[in-house]
Write a structure and sequence with these properties.
- The complex is a heterodimer.
- Chain A has one domain (about 10-140): Rossmann fold (3-Layer(aba) Sandwich).
- Chain A has four helices and four strands.
- Chain A has helices at about 20-30, 50-60, 80-95, 115-130, and strands spanning about 10-15, 35-40, 65-70, 105-110.
- Chain A has a four-stranded parallel sheet with strand order 2-1-3-4, with helices on both faces.
- In chain A, α1 (about 20-30) packs across α4.
- Chain A is globular.
- Chain B is an alpha/beta fold.
- Chain B has 17 helices and 34 strands.
- A five-stranded parallel sheet of chain B has the order 10-7-6-18-29, with helices on one face. In chain B, strands 20-27-21-22-23 form a five-stranded parallel sheet.
- In chain B, α13 (about 445-455) links the parallel β22 (about 430-435) and β23 (about 460).
- At the A-B interface, α1, β2, α2 and α3 of A face α4, α5, α16 and α17 of B.
């Protein structure tokens, strides 16, 4: 789809201590950025379960921006490094699924970097705009239903998990 | 909606005056939520001018009581601003405070977007996300932990001393840690303080003595904090007490060792390189404590194995060459950082010639020159040690307000430059020139001081100095330092020959500020100063509860402001101590032992060692006292056995769906 009117939908994950505060600072300082980014606050980028990203992409997001404290500045000492590791793995998984890995971006922003946060958000929207819509999940469901599938948070006890042969 | 019964959700959209309503159609957002999110359980959606006002809060409380709301979403500002306000309101009305969610439509929408249609649409998505999420919220109980009444203060400058005295006088114990041999900080190096020209030592040393002798203050000089663990109320701190090689129990501070020590070295710290000290020394006569320290690097005994002159002459046998560094472990409830500043290194502005042209001085050097206890006994002389200058140029904003160095204004340099002008004029009668960009003499009695210096006949040239050089163009300039500058008021270039140049250097963060910040779990601004919790309303607290910042560690400031901050932080600490216990956010991870396979993947992920493997049960377990709630283990568990309260998978997944408007009854909007 090469629609000129395509407006990407982006889900952004922020950490409570650095990047969410950067977004707050961007607000307080009235820095303008692209309105396509919708944010979710986590306590730490280390909380980011890669399935959150897949959930967002399969649910209609065209891109996902993961943000956290700069390396070495994590409020929880080093958990952003774990976010980095997951991010790198996730990109490989996305490639395997046939999705451009550029749809997921990792941005470090300290609590003082409101301007950087705003600039990165705007830049990412433009990058996704160039990639075009993802349309994952739209092909098979023309109509969204009320009783959408439950979040798969309930896991069976490990003893019952079947081990693939 | 994992619960059997449907939740009853109230949505409250705030106008925030015109802050939100100016860019977002708040009425539309509220109506939309009432209609489109009805199936999710939204039974009421209201908008109001100021939700955070008492009337706004009452509105919510009334609905909770009368409509039996079980969940509340407030679409307003950032949760960092008013989450507590609305949680408290809910609590007052009998609803668990953790069943309230804030949807930030100010910082994340109205303030950063301009198009009203787009901003309104995004607000709806943000509200939808919050509604989906809040349904998955669970009632949580605040965790109360006792507060250790002891306080650690790092840095014994005027701000740290003030903090220590305030807390100690209130009857609580303080550990005051200072890395130099004496407390006093930069202020102890100064001669006079602006604008009153109080003698710095006269006003500071009584405070130092008070801190040094106070029964509630444990003074740990020549010491550094090496490790910090724990959290507000319960910090465990490790302090390295460096070997002084002087037994503090026996030393009387008589000073005979200093007198007898045969080796002199240049004092780069206290005398700013202008004077000498012995290798066993107290930095200055009024040092607190007055026990000397041994400079191991330079001491003849440590280098050659012989000398021990100090030991021979010490009347109390206090010299102890076998002394070792000690590691002290202390428990404190709160920590105040008063680590101060470094002076901007004037060598970096190479065109001003500091370090190359001998008669260019830094501000700290001039402070020592003009100090009666300094290397020249207060005589303002050139580098040769005897010639009095006939003309002096003072250059402002060295390293400050300069894109090449620091963008910020160091705030004190203008007044410092004026003080220097007055002292030079008073003591030498020399002609004084001040070169300034803008004269910044805000605060009480500062501008009056400027007027006074003007009346004394100091000459002011408005313009940034381009160069200080000794390359004379004519006889008038021969043997002088020539200040090349554009006089922006007269609109012409000037070359002014002077005998002495003083650089009013700016302040900059300590060179190890970043590491110190990391040690205590607080962040630095882009410039490197510690970041306060709120620049206006919470200037001494930090994002990390229980850690406070005062004085120049937070940003450049003068003595009165440093003292005020020192006292302010103490009030905050005393408030905490008197409450006896502190509430912690109940955001913790826990392991469902039934589901845990014992794979131990989570064990190595926790930086706080909160997860332990219980070999008997073959499962891992989380110690809630150590868990800080980052959630890394929750995301990592392959069996989904770990859940994190406040940020559960169900909450986040629901918020993702909500933000993507997947929860609407009929397709996308």
């Amino acid at each position: 789809m090469t629609d000129d009117t395509f407006e990407p939908t982006i889900i952004g994950f922020t950490c409570n201590w650095c990047s969410y505060r950067a977004s707050d600072l961007a607000g307080t300082a009235r820095m303008k950025y692209a309105p396509n980014v919708r944010l979710i606050r986590l306590m730490c980028s280390g909380r980011l379960d890669p399935t959150f990203v897949l959930r967002a992409l399969s649910g209609g997001a065209d891109g996902v921006m993961i943000t956290g404290c700069h390396p070495g500045e994590c409020h929880y000492i080093e958990q952003n490094y774990k976010a980095l590791r997951r991010f790198l793995l996730l990109r490989r998984v996305l490639t395997g699924l046939g999705i451009e890995p550029e749809r997921v971006k990792l941005v470090w922003a300290s609590a003082a970097e409101g301007a950087k946060f705003a600039a990165e958000a705007t830049a990412f929207v433009e990058e996704i705009r160039k990639l075009g819509p993802l349309n994952w999940g739209k092909a098979d469901s023309g109509q969204q239903t009320v009783d959408h599938e439950e979040p798969s948070t309930v896991h069976r006890p490990s003893s019952e998990v079947e081990v693939p042969a | 909606m994992s619960d059997q019964k449907q939740e009853r959700v109230g949505v409250y959209v705030c106008h925030c005056g015109t802050n939100i309503a100016g860019t977002v159609d708040v009425v539309d957002v509220a109506n939309w939520a009432a209609e489109k999110l009805k199936h999710q359980g939204v039974i009421i959606a209201r908008e109001y001018k100021f939700m955070c006002s008492s009337l706004g809060q009452e509105l919510i409380e009334k609905d909770i009581k009368e409509l039996g709301l079980t969940r509340v979403v407030v679409a307003a500002c950032s949760p960092h601003l008013h989450e507590k306000t609305f949680r408290t309101a809910a609590k007052n009305a009998g609803l668990n405070p953790y069943l309230v969610e804030l949807a930030s439509i100010r910082e994340q929408v109205s303030w950063v977007h301009t198009d009203k249609v787009v901003a309104t649409a995004k607000s709806k998505a943000v509200v939808s996300g919050a509604v989906s999420r809040v349904i998955e919220n669970r009632a949580l109980d605040e965790i109360k932990v006792p507060i250790n009444p002891n306080t650690l203060i790092v840095g014994g400058g005027v701000a740290g001393i003030q903090s220590a005295l305030e807390i100690a006088n209130a009857g609580f114990h303080v550990y005051l840690v200072e890395r130099e041999p004496s407390i006093g900080g930069h202020m102890a190096q100064f001669d006079k303080t602006f604008p009153t020209l109080d003698c710095s030592a006269c006003i500071l040393t009584p405070r130092m003595v008070e801190a040094g002798t106070h029964p509630n203050i444990t003074l740990l000089t020549w010491s550094e904090v090496t490790n910090v663990a724990g959290y507000v109320g319960n910090f465990h701190v490790t302090i390295k007490k460096k070997a002084r090689f002087v037994n503090e129990e026996l030393c009387t501070g008589c000073g005979i060792c200093q007198e007898k020590c045969p080796k002199k070295v240049i004092d780069d710290v206290y005398e700013a390189g202008l004077g000498y000290r012995k290798t066993v020394y107290t930095p200055f006569a009024q040092a607190v404590p007055n026990f000397p320290v041994m400079d191991k690097e330079n001491c003849t005994y440590f280098i050659k194995g012989t000398c021990k002159a100090c030991e021979k002459f010490c009347p109390t046998n206090a010299i102890d060459f076998a002394q070792q560094d000690q590691m002290l472990n202390i428990d404190v409830g709160n920590i105040i950082l008063a680590t101060g500043y470094d002076l901007f290194d004037a060598r970096r502005v190479s065109n001003y010639g500091y370090g190359r042209l001998p008669n260019v001085f830094t501000s700290l050097e001039f402070e020592r020159l003009s100090n009666a206890a300094g290397p020249t006994s207060g005589n303002i002389v050139l580098r040769d040690g005897k010639t009095m200058p006939k003309s002096v140029g003072i250059i402002h904003c060295v390293g400050s307000r300069d894109k090449n160095f620091n963008n910020y204004c160091s705030t004190i340099c203008c007044m410092q430059g004026l003080k220097f002008a007055h002292l030079v004029h008073e003591r030498t009668g020399a002609t004084v020139y001040n070169f300034y960009i803008d004269m910044r003499t805000a605060y009480k009695a500062y501008d009056e001081f400027y007027q006074r210096v003007l009346e004394e006949g100091t000459l002011f040239v408005r313009g940034k100095v381009a160069e200080v050089t000794d390359a004379a163009r004519n006889d008038r300039e021969k043997g002088k330092l020539i200040i090349q500058c554009e006089d922006t008021l007269a609109g012409k270039q000037r070359r002014i020959p002077v005998d002495m140049v003083i650089l009013s250097s700016g302040l900059q963060p300590r060179k190890d500020a970043k590491e110190v910040g990391k040690l205590f779990g607080i962040s630095c601004s882009m410039d490197g100063w510690f970041t306060e919790k709120h620049p206006k309303l919470d200037p001494v607290a930090t994002m990390t509860e229980g850690i406070y910042i005062v004085g120049c560690a937070q940003g450049p400031k003068d003595i009165p402001s440093s003292v005020a901050q020192g006292a302010a932080a103490s009030a905050r600490v005393l408030d905490k101590i008197l409450q006896k216990e502190v509430s912690l956010e109940p955001i913790k991870a826990s392991i469902n032992k039934e589901a845990c396979s014992g794979c131990r993947i989570c064990n190595g992920l926790c930086p706080f060692n909160a997860i332990a493997f219980i070999a008997d049960d073959m499962v891992s377990d989380i110690n809630p006292a150590l868990c800080q709630g980052c959630g890394t283990c929750v995301a990592a568990c392959p069996a989904g056995a770990i859940s994190g309260t406040g940020f559960s998978d169900a909450q986040i997944m629901a918020q993702i769906d909500g933000l993507l408007l997947k929860n609407l009854e009929i397709g996308n909007y």
